[in-house]
């Protein structure tokens, strides 16, 4: 049972807050999930850029072990369950579950094709469940109050709450936990204290570099997985980056490409060679080379091995289109 | 049609988790999959195998998409073609400037041609530091096939990917490729789609015009090879992909060491000694002379004056005919082969314990083993393809137990390594058996049901002391106990053994004591377990099987048994002689004493390979007639009266038998040079000169007779049945599929014998004035006396024999790496270059015997096992002096 705390989306710090402020909540969720599936080993994988989270998790695990809640007997009376806290290796792609598992096995942090899925063939070939920190933190609450209580919050298709993270571009940055069912516009306006209109906002990057770039007029969407999917919006981890009006959108796209090229693990050709080629074109002038860029981004989208290469072109392409439109207008 | 899918409209049956790529290839579709290797986990990197599935919008990679019932797959469409072209162009533009589209180029360059990606074809400067392989970074596309095969087939981990994103590149862990950990197995060359890694020796060679499937002629693993020939010349050797033994893999020897075949030093005409010189003569003259002299010696001195050694490098058919010739024509049982000086102890012990003097297990037991014991064998160097299979099995989770005085490569992977003093196997195995019994951790049901002699063994072991064992072996009690208990917990194990048990004065005893361990843990006759002695030469198993033995006829039928002799008389016309003949060392003793006057040696270099070289040379010098069938003018041939030029492994037809009793086909790929002739033909011609009416039309007819004279073992063997993977004996009749494992239902002798074998120290242990213990053996890049490998580019990897000393001993003696030292035993002295090695234990040293100028066997002495007569190559008391 692995808690995935390799939170790497630029501008995202949800897991960081949970790991640092509620380490026992993470451990409890991990232990309950492990008990449910019969796992003997738990791993809390924390990105290396979160040294305080690593330290807090280690202290918490030690405390729980000393209290007799982890180790030989889970909760003092259950089966054995050991927890290891592992510091990541500074790679975005390791947030992907198969890449995360590969690094735990001492191999390059690279994505492996699925199937086999980790639940069948995971860490060292053993069935392995990988869950996000946020997911696990929900578990004790659900176990305590029951599934119905959790399902009563949110929408029919998306139960419970979602933690969202608002970056410095918002009037009121920080993280908020909201029930599913709110509209994105309300979140931006009520929680982010930012007017969601074109006079102030060029748009919002939702869900990190693999998410979606939404202009203000597209923000009338309900926070609900089904509704988001229908509109082609990827909420991802829940990071919201406000992009103020007047931002150089082609420059932002190039910046995102720089990130993609630096973090591409190098395993598959379209992502490795494509991101490098796209960055090279964008650096020479994203708008002049727009057709060539589109074609390279298209190759990445259709042929990359993992979502990193398939989905990072999405917001970049949106930004480039907006930039082109801006130039024409 | 729920269990079917379709590919480009053609129905295809869904088979388990088969990938779309595998299914498409099965139907004959060609898809580019340039990072993919069949049988390996998908790399999924190149993405060129994209296909479309009906009902989905995104193309998927065929290599890691399982074919499911109802799937409609499209492998070709304008958009797929455009996608593939775009991907390949992106890839080639990213790296590999030296590649260019070429319909006759590498796999990748052919696809560049087909998909319309021109490439640049820029000039490049490959790393040519290694004698066999070269690496051209400008051709490398980072497909990583090499990384896979190096890790997952050979286990050498030479190739690695370093860096992320565009910075990612291939590394081999050294400045120059020659300094990498590469063992030149060539698997990466075969895998590489762009010829970034390629062969140096055959870079300029033309493409093969014909390919001949045959069996490798080096060690006893018996790898299946495809010999590529162009313009009458062997240009390359590849592993046969479908072969059960090696699954396409080979070692550096099997793949690269074939230049001996066209060496200008090959013997190509029969030679007769005239004083100090040899004179080329016709076959008629040479065989006439040999026949006349043999006959004369026989008439004057009787059958005991003649002896013969068959060649474990040659075919079953040649060995059978040669032993038959001497038994039938001269009535002598002085028949032996080099099995005597390697695994005779093993064969004798196994026969005594189980009833069959051969491996009980098969190679496939390696992949099924939960635990593997490697005792007195160094498979990664001496049997590299099996060594790699063992290493892979251990990587996959099997426990490995190594027993060897040296820290061999496999010891690095082992949970236990007992570095015993040379020659103390019996004390060690007895201590382990004692621990198993006294800790009550042996397989009682197996012992009660299948073994005899337990009470006697238990009371013998009860009387031995573990403290003595610790003192004798130099292994701590804690290590012994941990080994024994772990073996009991993780067994039954596969016991892989080698000459470190056999080539000792306690050779038979060592193997019997090891068998005790195998029996106490219930290992023999079970899947993934049993006894697997690794045979040294390509056909040493076959030579013993054929009756190249002074007391056993074809199929291990004892000459002493009148019924057996009567049976042979029916097939041979005359019965074989009844009295047991001399073993190889006895024949040499008899020659030195003047009793043995004529010796026929088929392909064996006694003068370099047999122990106590001074004595061997004296014996050979004294012979009135020495006939040698050889490829080259070896140290032995130099002393012959008649030298007959032989066809080598690439030039002969017949069969070899490997270490898992698998009889496999040998086929000629090229004709022998000049007048050289296949061994079986030469024996038949000699027999005819000696007045016998032999008319075997071909080796098939010889094998047919072998089947008739030994039906229980070989009755079902026939040359035409050996296509593909051959047959494992026992194979009693034409319908029998062969036998993978022996003793599965009960032992050949009824119950297996637990043996009481008290430890006795070797006469070479603790000799005053000779403080070090010398172990002789082989290294990876040469083969035995090097007759063949020394005449190939491989020799550059091991150009001389090294005396290896423990660093502490080297320091104490003031020996720096490369210094020439004098090594002295009670039997002789040599000079050799020395170096320190942390694989050698303090107090011991190691020397190989590949080069004639080293004269390693001047040092080894006359000691031999009293039962098997196997010499003590593995233990000689020496002292080392700075030269």
Structure description:
The complex is a heterodimer of chains A (329) and B (883). Chain A has helices spanning 14-21, 23-37, 51-66, 97-104, 133-145, 147-151, 184-191, 225-230, 249-263, 269-283, 290-303, 307-311, 313-328, and strands at 2-5, 41-46, 82-87, 130-132, 161-166, 174-179, 201-206, 212-214, 239-244. In chain A, strand 2, helix 3 (51-66) and strand 3 form a beta-alpha-beta unit. In chain A, the strands form two sheets. A five-stranded mixed sheet of chain A has the order 6-5-9-7-8, with helices on both faces. In chain A, strands 3-2-1-4 form a four-stranded parallel sheet, with helices on both faces. In chain A, helix 1 (14-21) runs parallel beside helix 3. Chain A is 44% helix and 14% strand. Chain B is of the alpha/beta class. Chain B is 30% helix and 18% strand. In chain B, the strands form ten sheets. In chain B, strands 14-13-27-26-25-15-16 form a seven-stranded mixed sheet, with helices on both faces. In chain B, strand 23 (552-553) and strand 24 (557-558) form a beta hairpin. In chain B, helix 13 (425-438) runs antiparallel to helix 16 (466-473) and helix 13 (425-438) packs across helix 17. The longest helix of chain B has 19 residues, at 283-301. The N and C termini of chain B lie far apart (81 Å). The interface between A and B is medium-sized, with 29 and 29 residues.
Short account of what is shown:
The complex is a heterodimer of chains A (329) and B (883). Chain A is 44% helix and 14% strand.
Descriptors:
heterodimer, A: 329 residues, alpha/beta, four-stranded parallel β-sheet, globular, B: 883 residues, six-stranded mixed barrel, 30% helix
Oligomer: heterodimer
- Whole-number mean pLDDT of chain A: 94
Instruction: Count interface residues per chain for the largest interface.
Output: A-B, 29 and 29 residues
- Termini distance of chain A? 53 Å
Q: Unreliable stretches of chain B, pLDDT < 50, 5 or more residues?
A: none
Could you say which structural class the secondary elements and strand pairing of chain A correspond to? alpha/beta
